[in-house]
Amino acid sequence: MNFYDNSKYMEDVKCVADLPLPWDKLQDKTVMLSGATGLIGSFLIDVIMEKNVSDSLNCTVYALGRSEQRISSRFDKYMGNPQLVYVKYDVNDSFTRDDIGVVDYILHLASNTHPMQYSTDPIGTITTNIIGLKNMLDFAVDHNTTRFAFASSCEIYGENRGDTEFFDENYSGYINSNTMRAGYPESKRCGEALCQAYKAQKNLEVVVPRLTRTYGPTMLQSDSKAISQFIKKGVAGEDIILKSAGTQFYSYQYVSDSVSGLLMVLLCGENGEAYNIAEESSDITLKDLAGIVAGINGKEVVFEIPDAVEAAGYSTATKSRLDGHKLLGIGWKPKYDIKTGIERTVMILREMEQ
User: How far is CA 189 from the centre of its chain?
Assistant: First the structure.
């Protein structure tokens, strides 16, 4: 079974496509995104393509990727549809395409986003968030882009200094930049500053959606984040492995809600502003999160010591709860809390294995 044959997944896609967003801004327009086959990008493409089918949005999507096979496999339903165009591209290379005219909206979603990548490819982690972003920004300037969105991260806030429960968009916590693990949050911080530079110097409209720890059925099998590992074990009906005391208190978000927030920022956000895509009903400690997944199958939570490579990629933040009031204030509202989102993810992935 693929995603398009799964009724629950398509229900999520249609739910976002039916939201009362200013879709007219995308009518007869073009959207380009890096990270097309990733957790966020793939769901976003499905939403736009569904809107093309259901409401004649006539929005052409340029899906950037290094592998045509991965694109065609993931979006098999739309292969041959002229409104989904594959563009072979590695974001760390310079980007010029004379055959592509105006691109109305560009989203830079490509990034190393899980601990194993941070520890095994720290250079690629940094370059994708800085050099890759610069290449996309230059392309946006050259192709008269209306608005550019850089997908940033909750990790830019660093460690909670103990002076607040929630991080608003102006908070800045401690990051020890003289470590390998700092490459991800520091390059995201630098990426945000680069967006502001292009806004000031090139008059490019930019918005910065700050994604929190997103999960859902579109997660990649290679994803080594704790929540992804929990979900894989839950789908397999196995005990949940917890490689810490589990006291970390984080914000999470189900993929459809992250994508609806991303669209809200892209279409309704103020030029130059950053927005947290988070809501406290999806805040939870790692131990309690493991317990939810274990409870789906009546299994146990088992504690294990991580190996050196795994530990090197882990975040050192002990509390990272995001304040979502800024985005909620312009109309965004998530559909799922953490428990229902986790249960739905496991159900969808189990059905797809049948």
Answer: 16
pLDDT digits (tens, 9 = 90+) for 206-231: 999 999 999 999 987 777 678 888 99
CA–CA separation, 126 and 262 (whole Å):
22
Token pair for residue 351?
């059905």
Q: Where does residue 171 rank: exposed (0-12), middle (13-18), buried (19+ CB within 10 A)?
A: middle
Which three-class secondary structure string do you get for the chain?
CCHHHCHHHHHHHHHHHCCCCCHHHHCCCEEEEECCCCHHHHHHHHHHHHHHHHHCCCCEEEEEECCHHHHHHHCHHHCCCCCEEEEECCCCCCCCCCCCCCCCEEEECCCCCCHHHHHHCHHHHHHHHHHHHHHHHHHHHHCCCCEEEECEEHHHHCECCCCCCCECCCCCCECCCCCCCCHHHHHHHHHHHHHHHHHHHHCCCEEEEEECEEECCCCCCCCCCHHHHHHHHHHHCCCEEECCCCCCEEEEEEHHHHHHHHHHHHHHCCCCCEEEECCHHHEEEHHHHHHHHHHHHCCCEEECCCCHHHHHHCCCCCEECECCHHHHCCCCCCCCCHHHHHHHHHHHHHHHHC
Nearest in space to 266 (alpha carbons), one of 91, 29, 86? 29
User: What is this structure's pTM?
Assistant: 0.94
